């Protein structure tokens, strides 16, 4: 089954998140991946943990035969993310402390999460998918 991929920035998140939520019941798993923005000069993320985790996460997603929706949410550049008042740091639903953060979203709530230090671990990603 195809992976349903949505992308959002801080400014576009609310609208994209509503679409993600409205289609959630159609999927076996609904995931939100919070990532650092790409550096325009290098086309690579400014976050080394994101660079390490993204290929592992995508490999696991592509190997799955289930209907999975992935919302990639970009937190912004480094100064934007470092602001303690960043919207996703203070949002009670997410309470982000680092990127990447991979969240399992079920029944309109967070059912599991992998923080920056573990988001690249294949066994933890598999466990999150299966919750």
Automatic annotation (TrEMBL):
Leader peptide range in chain numbering: none
GO terms under cellular component: cytosol
Source organism superkingdom: Eukaryota
Alphabetical UniProt keywords: Disulfide bond, Electron transport, Redox-active center, Transport
Pfam families for this protein: TXD17-like_Trx
Gene Ontology molecular function: any one: protein-disulfide reductase [NAD(P)H] activity
Residue ranges of domain Thioredoxin in the record: 12-130
Keyword Disulfide bond attached: yes
InterPro entries (UniProt xref): Thioredoxin-like_sf (IPR036249), TXNDC17-like (IPR045108), TXNDC17_dom (IPR010357)
Entry's family note: Belongs to the thioredoxin family.
PANTHER family according to UniProt: 42-9-9 PROTEIN-RELATED (PTHR12452), THIOREDOXIN DOMAIN-CONTAINING PROTEIN 17 (PTHR12452:SF0)
Summary of the function given for this chain in its UniProt record: Probable thiol-disulfide oxidoreductase that may participate in various redox reactions.
Protein name: Thioredoxin-like protein Clot
Biological source species: Vigna radiata var. radiata
Upper taxonomic lineage: Eukaryota, Viridiplantae, Streptophyta, Embryophyta, Tracheophyta
């Amino acid at each position: 089954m195809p992976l349903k991929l949505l992308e959002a920035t801080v400014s576009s998140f609310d609208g994209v998140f509503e679409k993600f939520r409205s289609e959630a019941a159609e999927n076996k798993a609904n995931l939100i991946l919070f990532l650092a923005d790409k550096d325009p000069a290098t086309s690579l993320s400014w976050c080394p943990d994101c660079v390490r985790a993204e290929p592992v996460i995508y490999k696991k997603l592509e190997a799955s035969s289930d209907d999975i929706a992935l919302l990639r949410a970009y937190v912004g550049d480094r100064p934007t993310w470092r602001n303690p008042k960043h919207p996703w740091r203070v949002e009670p639903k997410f309470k982000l402390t680092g990127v990447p953060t991979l969240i399992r979203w079920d029944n309109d709530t967070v059912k599991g999460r992998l923080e920056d230090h573990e988001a690249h671990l294949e066994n933890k990603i598999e466990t999150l998918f299966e919750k």
